[in-house]
Design a protein that fits this description.
By secondary structure, this protein is α/β, with parallel strands linked by helices. The chain is elongated and about 80 Å long. The longest helix is centred in the middle third of the chain and has 16 residues, at about 150-165. Strands 1-2-8-7-6-5-9-10-11 form a nine-stranded mixed β-sheet, with helices on both faces. A three-stranded antiparallel β-sheet has the order 12-14-13. Helices cover about 40% and strands about 15% of the residues.
Amino acid sequence: MPIAVERDELSAWLRLTLTPGVGNVGARQLLTAFGLPQAIFDQPATALRQVVDSGRAEALLSRPEALPELLQTTWSWLQQQTDHVRHQIVTVGDPNYPAALLQLDDPPLLLYLLGSADFGAPGDALSNKPTSIDPQTSLAIVGSRNPTPQGVANARQFAKALAQVGLTIVSGMALGVDAAAHEGALEAQGSTVAVVGTGLDRVYPKVHHKLAHRIASRGLLVSEYPLGTPPLTANFPRRNRLIAGLANGTLVVEAALQSGSLITARLSAEQGKEVFAIPGSIHSTQSRGCHALIKQGAKLVESAQDVLEELRWPTTGLSNQPTAGAGDAHNAPEPLFSGNAALLQAIGFDVIGLDALQARTGLDTPTLQAHLMALEIDGVIAHLPGGLFQRQVG
């Protein structure tokens, strides 16, 4: 739906989304039977009852109380165009609606888009600045909201490497792995899509306000929820089907057994798409979801090239290829040291070197070595050849 859409047309679409009990599935049935939303509301109750039950037919004849305010808010939002960031609404009947989402059982009637790109045919596979986004050239990267430091590094490095060769990175802008994936794509000057669980006039979590603006400048923020929708718990599992739908595969970086990331992976597999998982320590609860996926047939990946080979994507331009578990002193999270418990968190369960630990903790070399020696004496960590350390379990 371009900005030039008529206000009455927008009103009809919003009214259809607001009508109680109709939902995406019922709305598609009505659209199939009668055409555009305006035509649905012109029908008598007898005609509507041939498509939906009596309760929903009666609801369709009543104008929702919230419609005038939502219409005004949405119309005003659509006018907020700049040279670099556009506000758009794409309807399920629009030719620019992502065809991949039409394969869902309940594709959203409306997609709210905020950003510098839109959905369309793929461009140059090696371009770092796509103007349109195609699910066939996109990869979802998801994982824990509370990842280990290594999980954050893996998400960032994989996203950066994959974005460098032209893949669009799709995620959910949540804390942890999602944010790291978006950051990695942005570092590569690549494109990234954030599918959110709120209205696009809100940013959740609030700490990602700057990240949201950066994503909009190089890609898209996408929501199926009307403006003003708060971060309701039920919205986030539902948006996972869109994350899976807008990508050609899903990479799970870290996930506990109950992680919502496993929902995204399952939905991706059900859509016939590739599922990838990065393995971790058998002692880390944040790796058990990935291990479960691997047991179920997900491809175990240790490098970005593993992903590209499975997708049959050209590796020309792939540089500084990340290896899972390698650590990265240059892209480490903010220092988190506040004692030995925090130092153990920084070490995680993978083998790690002194430089990476310094980057994660912010400690000077003598202080860090003193703490490491104390943990080694207590049998909590082991000092391995090559100046490496590893947490001891058991």
